[in-house]
């Protein structure tokens, strides 16, 4: 697309019929949607010129790992501030949300998607939105934007660009909520194993769950702080289509983060209990070794005495000397056992 081509200038009123196309293809698109004025969303082919409409909203989602997409975003006239474009093209991983000249832009975290399934790895969604267009991008496949895409294809209605971003954030929370449910179930299973008398070598599994909780808390903590700060800003000058319900989103994220913190604390307590159990097992093993050592010390002493190469040893002239020596070995061990049982070492 030429540098002087403006997406906003190509907008014409269309209702439910496809709006007129822009004169050139948009490279690096993962998907595109046109949201009509009544809230219905229409999926657009990415290998054709992008249409738009004065009465609707255009969502363009880019693969920022594609150099062609970066070049197009650098040169295209999207009608957004320079700071917004710079953040969109950056690799900044600091979660943030800004408003400048009827434009909202920022970076939010999400979970990476692998073959249709959410992973525990963190990815970042960069976006810039005005009243009529939302441009988003990622370097790796993300869960929340893909869930939003499927929701739009299933008929979910969108009222404004702010509502579209809210939907994405809601799906971020839903994805993390699903991961939290899996972690909670895994913690239940580990707790059952820790409290049972079975094998307790569960440190690797428990450590992995603690790491997951720490990652989710780190993401949610940054995300909810972003929306709390955004809520405190004076947003009366923003157009209604850009006014995010930041308080509602922050409340949802606060509740989810509280659940994650509880699970992190629970995993820590489980790890402490597991360490105590392992320590108890180690003490039992040391106790068994100590008892065996005590039982074998008297026979060792007897064997050492009869092994001395000196004159005057007892039983040297008897034919039954070995039997007497063996009897002394057994009796010495028996005496050590009775003494330890008497004083309570052996129960």
Automatic annotation (TrEMBL):
One of its GO terms (molecular function) is magnesium ion binding. The chain crosses the membrane at residues 286-309, 321-340. The keyword Calcium does not apply. One of its GO terms (cellular component) is plasma membrane. It comes from the Bacteria. Keywords: Cell inner membrane, Cell membrane, Ion transport, Membrane, Transmembrane, Transmembrane helix, Transport, Zinc. Its main location: membrane. It is a multi-pass membrane protein. It is found in: Cell membrane. Belongs to the CorA metal ion transporter (MIT) (TC 1.A.35) family. This is Cobalt transporter. It comes from Bradyrhizobium lablabi.
């Amino acid at each position: 697309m030429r540098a002087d081509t403006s997406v906003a200038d190509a907008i014409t009123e269309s209702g439910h019929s496809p709006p007129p196309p822009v004169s050139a293809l948009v490279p690096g698109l993962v998907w595109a949607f046109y949201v009509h004025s009544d809230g219905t969303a229409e999926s657009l082919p990415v290998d054709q010129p992008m249409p738009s409409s004065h009465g609707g909203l255009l969502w363009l989602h880019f693969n920022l790992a594609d150099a062609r997409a970066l070049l197009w975003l650098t040169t295209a006239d999207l009608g957004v501030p320079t700071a917004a474009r710079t953040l969109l093209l950056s690799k900044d991983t600091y979660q943030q949300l800004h408003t400048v000249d009827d434009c909202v832009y920022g970076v939010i975290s999400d979970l990476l998607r692998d073959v249709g399934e959410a992973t525990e790895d963190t990815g970042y969604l960069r976006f810039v939105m005005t009243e009529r267009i939302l441009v988003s991008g990622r370097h790796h496949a993300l869960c929340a934007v893909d869930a939003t895409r499927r929701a739009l294809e299933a008929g979910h209605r969108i009222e404004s660009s702010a509502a579209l971003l809210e939907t994405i954030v809601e799906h971020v929370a839903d994805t993390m909520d699903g991961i939290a449910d899996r972690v909670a179930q895994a913690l239940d299973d580990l707790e059952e194993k820790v409290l049972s008398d079975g094998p307790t070598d569960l440190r690797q599994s428990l450590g992995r769950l603690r790491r997951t909780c720490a990652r989710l808390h780190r993401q949610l903590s940054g995300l909810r702080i972003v929306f709390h700060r955004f809520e405190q800003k004076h947003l009366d000058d923003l157009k209604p289509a850009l006014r995010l319900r930041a308080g509602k989103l922050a409340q949802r994220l606060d509740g989810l983060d509280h659940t994650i913190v509880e699970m992190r604390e629970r995993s820590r307590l489980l790890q402490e209990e597991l360490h105590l159990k392992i320590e108890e097992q180690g003490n039992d093993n040391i106790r068994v070794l100590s008892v065996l050592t005590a039982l074998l010390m008297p026979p060792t002493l007897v064997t050492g005495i009869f092994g001395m190469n000196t004159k005057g040893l007892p039983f040297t002239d008897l034919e039954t000397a070995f039997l007497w020596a063996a009897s002394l070995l057994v009796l010495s061990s028996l005496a050590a056992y009775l003494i330890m049982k008497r004083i309570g070492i052996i129960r």
